[in-house]
């Protein structure tokens, strides 16, 4: 293995024993965190409230189809998805890849095969995201130098601005709740919400043509913030 399994995995399946076995298996293989969900409702909650690097998704769930969740997810996120299903028809596989699943594994399966596929998908994802220059609507965020480049001019960032922007980039095109940002940036986040609002506005002054009408770092009312990748 040529990379550390420093990733968070979410497994969605309605089979309790399978969930427990995969949780133990993947934790023992060194993954940072392994979350489980038995239906769409739990899946949506965990995708919204935790940083998930890869989703393992069953299709036949008690409250709907995994395809529905995949379609929803692809409207706002490009996190890797591996479908894990007893549906083995060519039309089912076609539907999965049509909706931008990264891989499709049919049950029954060997846990090691799932692990190999997870590793392969994450390696591909890591290479794609390995470029430390991120294009945000024409403004370049150079993570290596900790600066923005706008209209060919370098713009410095404070340490807190860098942390906030880096965290939002880890969740690019996804809504990130205020609580999640606070918990990530400040160890004791109580009372920092107004401070965060100030930092967000200062970031917008550097990112946006008009910080009062943001197009890159936008507010999703009642939910949080979303950094839009237009690159």
Strand content: 15-25%
Question: Major sheet, described briefly?
Answer: 5 strands, parallel
The stretches of 5 or more residues where confidence is low (pLDDT under 50) are: none
Order of helices and strands: EHEHEEEHEHEHEEEEHEHHEE
User: Which CATH C-level class of the largest domain is it?
Assistant: Alpha Beta
Shape: elongated
Strand order of the largest sheet: 2-1-3-6-7
The CATH architecture designation of the largest domain is 3-Layer(aba) Sandwich
CATH superfamily of the largest domain: Response regulator
Total DSSP E strands: 14
How many individual helices? 8
Please tell me about this protein's structure.
With 231 residues, the protein is α/β, with parallel strands linked by helices. The protein folds into two domains: 121 residues, Rossmann fold (3-Layer(aba) Sandwich); 95 residues, Orthogonal Bundle (Arc Repressor Mutant, subunit A). The chain is built from eight helices and 14 strands. Strands 2-1-3-6-7 form a five-stranded parallel sheet, with helices on both faces. A hairpin with a 2-residue loop joins strand 8 and strand 9. Helix 6 crosses helix 8. It is elongated. The two termini are 31 Å apart. The mean pLDDT is 88. Keywords: DNA-binding, Phosphoprotein, Transcription, Transcription regulation. Pfam families: Response_reg (PF00072), Trans_reg_C (PF00486). It comes from Anaerococcus hydrogenalis DSM 7454. This is Response regulator receiver domain protein. One of its GO terms (biological process) is regulation of DNA-templated transcription.
